[in-house]
Structure formats: C-alpha cells, structure tokens
Amino acid sequence: MPKLTNVQTHILTRASRHATGIALPLPNRLKGAAAKTSVSPLLKRGLLSEAPTDPRKCEALWDQNADGTFTTLIITDAGLAAIGVEIDPPRLKPVSDPAPANPAQRKGTKQAMLIKMLRTKDGATLDEIVAETGWLKHTARGVISGQLKKRLGLTVLCKTVEGRGRIYQIVP
C-alpha cells in the first residue's frame, strides 16, 4: 500500500477521533481542487467512504449527487488500520444522521429564551427575537445558525408567513 501524505494522515487521524468517524471538516488550507486531490486517493483505496446524509441535520457535507442527495465522508476500518488504530470489534459504521450530542442547557439565559420562542407553533420573527433578547439582528442570526443549528443540532426552519414576514421555528 502506498504511503499516506501528511495531510491524508491528518484527515484520517481526525476522523478516527470523531465519535461517528466523520472526516469533515477538512483542514482549512484544503479547498476545492486541493481537497479533491487529497481525498480522492483515500476514497479509491477504501480508507474513506461516502455516506448519505441529511443536510438539515449534518453540517459536514462533502458532495451533492445528481439526484439532489448529499454525502459526507466516513473513515472505514481499513482507514483506521492504515493509521494504526486497533479495531476490535469494528466500531465505526457509516451513519446517515450524524447529529451532535446536545449539551446541557442553562435555564434563564437568552439562548434558552430564544429556544422557547422558536419552539412555539407560530415561531418568531427576527424583530421579535431582537426585541426580546436585546441582541442586534446579525447576532440573533448568528446564534440561530451557530449555536442552535451547529452546536445543539436543532432543526430551525425559516419560512415566510403572509402578514408577518419571515419566521424562524424549531421543528421536532
């Protein structure tokens, strides 16, 4: 088996440390063609595999297929063996729904207030969120995308309602 480059070893090592074996995100310097150049040999050699995923529940997207479905990269048992990680029994299997674990929530915080607002059947507009929390609009949007979606793994829908405008809502 040909040797792995430092970048390929780094990708596999990070994936081996992830609870579900996801190999994304790639190192910051790997974009576009450089990413494909590093990852393609790993896919061809069976050290990584592409697994279907739901873009609403997983931020670690690798590719979009022609039919509109998305994939992520998962380390395989061969990939673990290539970097010297013992697997007894095989512990990582491709998963289609790698959602982050929900950290404990503190009560009485602005984030808890926001979650309560968004869990109502009517949701909340950005202006309502700003009025309730005292945040600026860009801060409110950042908390929704960064904290609620990425960190907590909540599914937040954004839709336009006639007479009310754009509303945000957490769906179960």
Task: Note poorly predicted spans.
Answer: 96-100
- Any guess at the CATH architecture of the largest domain? Orthogonal Bundle
Structural class: alpha+beta
CATH fold label of the largest domain: Arc Repressor Mutant, subunit A
Spatial strand order of the main sheet:
1-3-2
Structural shape: elongated
Total strands: the figure is 6
Order of helices and strands: HHEEEHHEHHEE
Query: Helix coverage percent of residues?
Result: 25-40%
Instruction: Give the percentage of residues in beta strands.
Output: 15-25%
Q: Residue-averaged pLDDT, rounded?
A: 81
Q: What CATH first level of the largest domain would be assigned?
A: Mainly Alpha
- C-alpha Rg, in Å? 20 Å
- Roughly how many Å apart are the termini? 46 Å
- Total number of distinct structural domains: 2
Count every helix, treating DSSP H or I runs of 4 or more residues as helices: 6
State the major sheet.
3 strands, antiparallel
Provide the fold topology.
Layout: H1 6-17, H2 32-44, E1 48-53, E2 63-64, E3 70-75, H3 77-82, H4 110-118, E4 124-125, H5 126-133, H6 137-151, E5 155-161, E6 165-171
Antiparallel strand pairs: 1-3, 2-3, 4-6, 5-6
Structure description:
By secondary structure, the protein is an alpha+beta fold. It folds into 2 domains: 6-82, Arc Repressor Mutant, subunit A (Orthogonal Bundle), CATH 1.10.10; 110-171, Arc Repressor Mutant, subunit A. The chain is built from 6 helices and 6 strands, in the order H-H-E-E-E-H-H-E-H-H-E-E. The protein has helices spanning 6-17, 32-44, 77-82, 110-118, 126-133, 137-151, and strands at residues 48-53, 63-64, 70-75, 124-125, 155-161, 165-171. The strands form 2 sheets. Strands 1-3-2 form a 3-stranded antiparallel sheet. A 3-stranded antiparallel sheet has the order 4-6-5. A hairpin with a 3-residue loop joins strand 5 and strand 6 (165-171). The radius of gyration is 20 Å and the shape is elongated. The model is unreliable at 96-100 (pLDDT under 50).
